[in-house]
């Protein structure tokens, strides 16, 4: 049921453009434009969509526990997530050496965290790749729980995130290694939960009470975001750098997804929507490319150049990575000898 809904790709397209803008604009400009209410929602949008897709994938299915982790499942995830990462991992080393040869700046760093998804040439947003890797193992359990015990699963996700935030606030492990905290999937459990809830709402007429609840939650999140960024609100249980992405804010991103899903057509030939949908389909590849790009360049404030390079190269990477793999697959199925 999750296929052929252009809205999902359009939202992902908007989100990946937002990621590049966030990494190209200074903090003052972001604050001036109240970006916390729009482009700063990029990763929360991705995570809510992850939950939405998870909920949609079991709409007419009854997954059994023994079927959660199959060879087909791992092969599919390996092809979609791991192979592009391995290609960009190798490419980052090559580009790192070329960059050193051209500029004299050595950007390659081999470390233990490479095993968690940190690229040798790493830039902003690398934590999202580690989140994606964790999703391979965690989402099947969430999917199973949501199908058989939806209410309990949603409540459990929210409670587990709150517990994680409270327990991790003073843990030395996360103080010593901020990346581990940034890349911890439990930080986004409630975003996944909101996505699961949306999977029950986007295809049916929602009752007035549900609309009121969702809108109220989004307004509360919006007020919290503004107070946190521009007011005196401070919650010591939440680390400063992630105060805008937590259980208190994700209802805002969920509301944006619901609003766009209802407002946009399932399919459209509108050139803007088609362009965004194309970028959305390539968003993972674009995300990988922008990590290396921002990890190499010294001046990251050339917005037009950054958008042009990251979007174009990421799209081409997505397109030709698939074409090459399909070519070799066809050769293995239909040998020439």
Protein architecture, described:
By secondary structure, the protein is mainly α. The protein has one domain (6-333). Helix content is 67%, strand content 0%. It is built from 14 helices and no strands. It has helices spanning 6-22, 27-32, 42-57, 71-103, 127-148, 150-168, 172-176, 178-182, 189-199, 208-230, 250-263, 271-281, 283-296, 303-333. Helix 3 packs across helix 9. The protein starts with 5 loop residues before the first helix and ends with a helix. The mean pLDDT is 92.
Gist?
Pfam families: Acyl_transf_3. The protein is built from 14 helices and no strands.
Mean pLDDT: 92
Low-confidence stretches: none
Can you write the helix and strand succession as a string?
HHHHHHHHHHHHHH
Helix fraction by DSSP (H/I, runs of at least 4): 55-70%
Q: What number of domains?
A: 1
Distance between the termini: 40 Å
Shape: globular
Rg value:
20 Å
Query: What structural class results from the helix and strand content?
Result: mainly alpha
Given the structure, what is the number of helices?
Answer: 14
State the total count of DSSP E strands: 0
Query: What is the beta-strand fraction?
Result: under 5%
Largest sheet: none
Subcellular location: Cell membrane
Membrane topology: Multi-pass membrane protein
Transmembrane segments: 37-60, 81-102, 122-141, 148-167, 179-199, 211-230, 242-261, 273-297, 303-320
Keywords: Acyltransferase, Cell membrane, Membrane, Transferase, Transmembrane, Transmembrane helix
């Amino acid at each position: 049921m999750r296929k052929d809904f252009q809205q999902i790709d359009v939202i992902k397209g908007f989100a990946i453009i937002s990621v590049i803008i966030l990494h190209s604009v200074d903090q003052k400009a972001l604050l001036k434009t109240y970006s916390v209410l729009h482009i700063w929602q990029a990763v929360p949008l991705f995570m809510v969509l992850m939950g939405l897709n998870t909920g949609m994938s079991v709409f007419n299915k009854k997954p059994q526990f023994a079927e959660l982790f199959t060879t087909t499942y791992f092969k599919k995830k390996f092809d979609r997530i791991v192979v592009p990462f391995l290609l960009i991992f190798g490419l980052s080393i090559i580009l790192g050496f070329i960059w050193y040869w051209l500029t004299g700046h050595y950007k390659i760093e081999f470390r233990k965290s490479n095993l968690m998804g940190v690229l040798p040439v790493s830039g902003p947003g690398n934590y999202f790749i580690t989140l994606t890797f964790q999703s391979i193992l965690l989402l099947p359990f969430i999917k199973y729980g949501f199908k058989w015990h939806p209410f309990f699963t949603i409540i459990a996700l929210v409670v587990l995130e709150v517990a994680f935030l409270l327990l991790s606030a003073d843990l030395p492990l996360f103080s010593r290694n901020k990346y581990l905290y940034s890349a911890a999937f439990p930080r986004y459990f409630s975003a996944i939960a909101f996505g699961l809830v949306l999977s029950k709402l986007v295809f049916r007429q929602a009752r007035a009470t549900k609309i009121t609840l969702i809108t109220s939650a989004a307004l509360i999140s919006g007020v919290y975001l503004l107070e946190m960024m521009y007011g005196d609100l401070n919650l010591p249980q939440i680390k400063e750098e992630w105060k805008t992405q937590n259980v208190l804010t994700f209802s805002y991103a969920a509301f944006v997804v619901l609003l766009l899903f209802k407002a946009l057509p399932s399919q459209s030939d509108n050139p803007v929507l088609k362009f965004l949908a194309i970028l959305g389909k390539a968003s993972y590849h674009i995300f990988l490319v922008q990590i290396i790009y921002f990890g190499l360049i010294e001046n990251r404030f050339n917005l037009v150049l950054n958008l042009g390079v990251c979007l174009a190269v990421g799209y081409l990477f997505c397109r030709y990575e698939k074409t090459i793999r399909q070519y070799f697959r066809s050769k293995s199925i239909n040998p020439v000898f």
